[in-house]
Design a protein that fits this description.
751 residues, 4 domains, Substrate Binding Domain Of DNAk, Chain A, domain 1, Nucleotidyltransferase, domain 5, six-stranded mixed beta sheet, Actin, Chain A, domain 4, 16 helices
Length: 751
């Protein structure tokens, strides 16, 4: 049973797998640990990951990127409206304000939900794991940002179900990185906590967490996030700078074309990476717009001046997380940075300066730490692995309130909760209460007792104090409790009678029908993917056969075809090549039939070539056998003296017959042109050699008979047994007895 962890980012995704020896990050089909988080559609093909990235420039409007930024959100939310200006594809409003992504697939327009698009990215990562394991992989732990709301988390779970994955847990990304950091720190003290600050600067967002470690346990003290501060923002300030420069210089507006803007942002990202190691970096884009080539130069100091507002926002996030932790800066033992944006020197220096350190720690791999932590968590939850005991205590970002309907009867609620955890006491009166406050420990369970005699309803939602972006729903779920038995009041008793009540819940996410339809659509797409792959392989095999025989007809197979056939077959190959270019969307059976035609056409030449290649070895084998057995038949060596003359004559006859076959076959084949089928096959020659060996080998290997045992002389008197008194045991043997037992000289056999 394989356990994997998947980290889905804005631009890239990483998959890690738990093995007996530890956690490994898996490489994709192009041997890279990072796989592009995108899905492309081209005709009947669905391209996932790196395949979509390779063709995005020419297929921008039909390639879905950055699904993480729109999943689980409403169309009119602040986040989706911002993404509309940053992506190359189209988004529309569907259903009850949800997001729909129309794409052209299989010669028709298909509207995908973000959940289905995310399931395709997850499926791509699952393929990588299954290719490594050479078998199915289903158990997974997925990473999500701390700021993800309940709707966004439900959407991730639905995407995993559509992809056929068994999501054991959604794990907050920075907590996963902390797990990958802390579980290997065996020198942590048991009684004194070690406080570590984690800063995750990704492509789209930034998260700062203060985490406390003791031996075998981590506890998240506080978290602060910004949904819109990441590496993409640094790319955009460079892109906007050069767009304004070229608009003035070349009179072209890059913002008017999504394709041009995508190329500009991609080039700006490369320039940003060069500036991380150099004081200056150029930017060049050929045929940018209106057949104009553009170029520019950026200084690192100039970029830092433009990016200063972004660095100020980073300071604010660190300040927010640090204040919520209640610690002093002296209490922080180290600052761990992860995420691709953390490689920017200005970001590194800003983080280290804020915490008063000389430099930040880079113990963790910036790209792989979160996926490794998720794989570790998956192994801890799986019965197939035994992992060192390690407790993970996370926190929730948003306070959750519970409200209930008033029935006019007894309106009272009690909460049983753990004391001494720093949590506020939950009020037990009224019709609404904050059950889980901000930074409430997770996992955490609280038991609520309601005194009711009639059916009532409950509603869970984020508290009004929660700071959610515009357009996010506050409500989480509705519950209706029915079948409450009406019992008369009785005297107090210690006996507690438990009765199962009917509870109907309405939560977020896809309905059962929507989930089934999405799974069915995904299965159909996978089936079409397999058919297209099989068709492509069959077409490539036919094309390779055409190219192979075009070369062979003038080289390898040239001597085995007459000139008339060469000309005819060359025309057939040209016709087949033209047919391939005009029929690139045929089914596998058609390509296989065409390839069989080619193979059948060249089969005689292939057979003649094979005969010419194997015939010398076959003749050599026969000649060797003839020489060996002919030498035996005429040999007078003493080692063959026991073989009768009749048997040697039989060997001579077999050798003569084989020699005659050899001479006849040799004469026929030497006189035969290479363009004609040989009357004697190499297999016949090898069979003759085998038959000769079978007939002669037993005779040649016949063992010598053993010499007969000597018989005692007939006139020798029987020997009398010696008595003990005569001392027979120590006395020398009698010479007369030895002489009597020895055979006569005339009776001895001499070989």
């Amino acid at each position: 049973m394989a356990c994997i962890g998947i980290d889905i980012g804005q631009q890239n995704a990483v998959v890690a797998i738990a093995r007996r020896g530890g956690i490994d990050v898996l490489s994709n089909e192009v041997s890279k640990p990072l796989t592009a988080s995108m899905v492309g559609f081209l005709g009947k093909e669905r391209k996932l990951g790196e395949q979509a990235l390779s063709g995005i420039t020419s297929n921008l409007t039909n390639t879905i990127t950055g699904v993480k930024a729109v999943i689980g959100k409403k169309y009119h939310s602040e986040d989706v409206q911002k993404e509309l200006n940053l992506v190359g594809y189209k988004m529309i409003e569907v259903g009850s304000g949800n997001v729909g992504i129309p794409v052209s697939y299989n010669e028709e327009e298909v509207v995908l939900t973000p959940e289905r698009a995310m399931s395709m990215v997850l499926k791509c990562m699952q393929f990588i794991a299954e290719l490594d394991q050479k078998g199915p992989v289903t158990d997974v732990v997925l990473s999500v940002p701390h700021y993800f709301t309940d709707a966004e988390r439900h959407a991730m779970l639905d995407a995993a179900k559509v992809a056929g994955l068994n999501c054991l847990r959604l794990m907050n990304d920075i907590t996963a990185a902390a797990l990958a950091y802390g579980i290997y720190k065996t020198d942590m003290p048991v009684d004194k906590p070690t406080h570590v600050a984690f800063v995750d600067c990704g492509a789209m967002d930034t998260t700062v967490a203060i985490i406390s470690f003791v031996k075998g346990k981590l506890t998240v003290l506080s978290v602060a996030c910004d949904r819109h501060l990441g590496g993409r923002d640094f790319d955009m300030i460079l892109a906007e700078h050069f767009a304004a420069e070229w608009k003035e210089k070349h009179k072209i507006d890059a913002k008017s074309s999504k394709k041009a803007m995508y190329r500009l942002v991609t080039a700006a990202e490369k320039t940003k990476k060069i500036l991380s190691a150099n004081p200056q970096a150029p930017i060049n884009i050929e045929n940018f717009m209106n057949d104009i080539d553009v170029k520019g130069m950026m200084d690192r100091s100039e970029m830092l001046a433009v990016a200063e507002p972004l660095l100020v926002k980073l300071d604010g996030i660190m300040e927010q997380a640090f204040k919520a932790s209640g610690l002093m800066k002296e209490d922080i033992s180290s600052v761990e940075i992860i995420g691709g944006t953390s490689r920017i020197p200005a970001v590194k220096d800003r983080i280290a300066k804020w915490f008063g350190l000389e430099r930040c720690s880079t113990t963790l791999n910036a790209d792989e730490a979160i996926a490794k932590g998720c794989a570790l968590q998956c192994a801890m939850l799986s019965p197939a692995f035994k992992v060192r005991d390690f407790s993970v205590n996370d926190v929730t970002m948003y306070p959750i309130a519970l409200s209930w309907s008033s029935t006019g009867a007894v309106d009272k609620m009690e909460v049983d909760q753990d004391e001494g955890e720093g949590e506020e006491k939950v009020p037990t009166t009224g019709s609404s209460s904050v059950v889980f406050s901000k930074f409430n420990s997770v996992p955490n369970t609280k038991m609520l007792t309601f005194y009711r005699k009639e059916a009532f309803s409950l509603s869970a939602s984020y508290d009004s104090t929660a700071t959610l972006p515009m357009g996010f729903p506050m409500k989480l779920a509705d519950f209706t409790v029915t079948d409450i038995p009406a019992e008369p009041e009785k005297k107090k008793s210690r006996k507690v009678k438990r009765i199962a009540l009917t509870v109907q819940s309405r939560t977020g996410g896809l309905t059962s029908k929507e989930l089934m339809e999405a799974q069915e659509a995904e299965a159909n797409m996978q089936l079409l993917d397999k058919m297209i792959k099989a068709n492509a392989e069959a077409m490539n095999a036919l094309e390779a056969t055409v190219y192979k025989y075009r070369s062979d007809i003038s080289e390898r197979l040239g001597p085995f075809f007459p000139e008339s056939d060469k000309e005819k077959f060359g025309e057939a190959l040209t016709t087949m090549e033209d047919w391939l270019y005009d029929n690139a969307d045929q089914e596998k059976a058609v390509y296989d039939a065409k390839r069989k035609e080619m193979l059948d056409m060249f089969a005689p030449g292939e057979e003649r070539y094979l005969e010419a290649e194997t015939r010398p070895d076959a003749f050599a084998e026969l000649e060797k056998a003839i020489a060996a057995f002919a030498g035996f038949a005429s040999s007078t060596d003493e080692q063959y003296a026991h073989i009768s003359a009749e048997e040697k004559q039989k060997v001579e006859a077999e050798v003569a017959q084989a020699q005659a076959f050899h001479s006849e076959a040799k004469a026929k084949l030497d006189a035969l042109p290479a363009t004609e089928m040989p009357p004697v096959k190499a297999a016949d020659i090898s069979a003759k050699a085998a038959a000769l060996t079978k007939a002669c080998k037993p005779i040649m290997s016949k063992p010598k008979p053993l010499p007969p045992k000597p018989e005692p002389a007939a006139d020798a008197p029987p020997a009398e047994p010696a008595t003990p008194s005569e001392g027979a045991g120590d006395s020398p043997p009698d010479e007369g007895a030895d002489a009597a037992e020895a055979p006569k000289k005339d009776d001895m056999e001499v070989e």
